[in-house]
Fold these 2 entries.
Entry 1:
Amino acid sequence: RESLYAECRAKPARTRDGFSVRVDVNSGDKESIETFNADECDGVGLFRTEFLYMGQKDYPSEEFQFEVYRGMAEKAGGKELIIRTLDIGGDKQLDYMDLPKESNPFLGFRAIRICLSRPELFQTQLRAILRAGVYGNVKIMFPMIVNLEELLQAKSQLEAAKRELDGRQIAYRRDIPVGIMVETPAAVLLSDILAKHVSFFSIGSNDLIQYTTATDRMNEKVQYLYDSCNLSVLRSIRMVCRNAHANGVQVGICGETASEPRLIPLWCALGVDELSVAPPLVGRTKYIVGQVSKKEMEERTEKLLASGSIPEAKQELSGILGELG
Ligand code: PEP
Ligand code: MG
């Protein structure tokens, strides 16, 4: 098996009936940057930037961030590099930021909420990303969006960052593609509207499962409910895919479920354009994609999502994976 997977790693993944799925990697710490090899994936589908803020005594400067993003963009060559703006808060805290203690941090002051309320912090990062855009196929992604207003505010901040760079006469990528993480039920239900304002969606299933099933992703006691096969989650993902494609928007998945073997046939059926996975799982993910017939899976997927029973859905999904070989 391992050698079959290794063979698939460097080749484009296509279903048996010819539909392409890009398989990217998730990255976002020193080690994953050092070991990143663009020849063994289709790009970076999620570049988490929290690590730049975490191992520090103070906020990272524009130059420091720019060097890291540029290095990664150059390593990626022409392949896509989706840089996610700061997603701090929730489970990730920073001493120097002086954030309030909260009783429900995952429902609190985190991610885009912090960035929109601290324009200097946000602008510094946006300028660094814009500048790195000159050195590769860089895209920018906003996390934790729950309404259109947040997205529009974030985009207007991006325009302000461009004006600042214009003023300083520093080179940057003017037409940088903008996308959002779809990781809240709010974003799922608004995906038809949000799609009109972005060039891609990336489904953050780690948080989407948490928020859809009202199950803290860190709480051991309720992990039995934190289930990627909860049909509410799968139906949400179907809705996002439909709304994305109806608007010509690309859709990816960058949570852990992107590489869950029994769900990969489903992702193919739903027309997911890109899966972003842990680097060691690229080969296996591409291999499974190559075994699937999208057309055959479409009908089975509709039946499965109508069944309402999680155990039945899991049994059916395992059966399908078994048939693929
Ligand atoms: C997610 O929520 O699925 C995701 C990829 O982001 P993170 O795990 O960093 O919250
Ligand atoms: Mg998330």
Note: The beta strands are 13-14, 20-27, 43-47, 80-84, 137-142, 178-182, 200-203, 250-253, 274-277.
Entry 2:
Amino acid sequence: MRAIILGGPGSGKGTQSERLSNHLKIPVISTGDVLRNAIASKNFLGTKAKPYLEKGDLVPDELMIQFMRMRLLQPDVSEGWMLEGYPRTAFQAEELSFVLDDFKQRLDWAIYLELDEAVMVERSLARSRDDDQIEIVQRRIRRFKERTIPILEYYEPRQKLLRINANQTREQVEAEIIQKLGAS
Ligand code: B4P
């Protein structure tokens, strides 16, 4: 299976991708984790990405696309994957479809975790990661609305989009995803 998980800040992309990975036995690539690890190890990607994460902005498409092209060639994801936090822009979505065409693969599902804005703020602030300060969270929400929401229009007509109510508990969100994956 090949799926992507979309959602605003604190919508539970990391939480649900980990649960689904265990349930469905498929590897997860989390761009948020990749970037935070790269920053911690001060490598090329981390040095370039750091100022964007600190402000709550998206890392430039060129950098993310280059990274993902190489990552998707690795043997651990040759049989399937779940992309958590990627794509996040229309350009990344389009580029992902080119990569899939090149590999003669297809995307099975785009899972969208729909969350009220007030809950995005509440959950992010409760977590206290470096980029979980109020001004940064608000900027991340703005970027999500400007850059990521338009992707939904890209996937919806292709009938791959599963809309999930992410305001529920972790268990209820997971159950709704599994039920919709099975029922669809
Ligand atoms: P992410 O790491 O993707 O950050 P996120 O959106 O805040 O996290 P997520 O939705 O995974 O929330 P989580 O499960 O942790 O991105 C961080 C930054 O990286 C971005 O701002 C950007 O700069 C950069 N970036 C990443 N990908 C990029 C890309 N493709 N292009 C450009 N830039 C990119 O949940 C949050 C909290 O809520 C946790 O504490 C969790 O325990 C809790 N929670 C989860 N589900 C819950 C539930 N149902 N009920 C109650 N609490 C819940």
Note: Residues 7, 9-15, 31-32, 35, 52-53, 56, 58-59, 64, 85-86, 88, 92, 123-124, 127, 140, 169-170, 173 surround BIS(adenosine)-5'-tetraphosphate (CB under 6 Å).
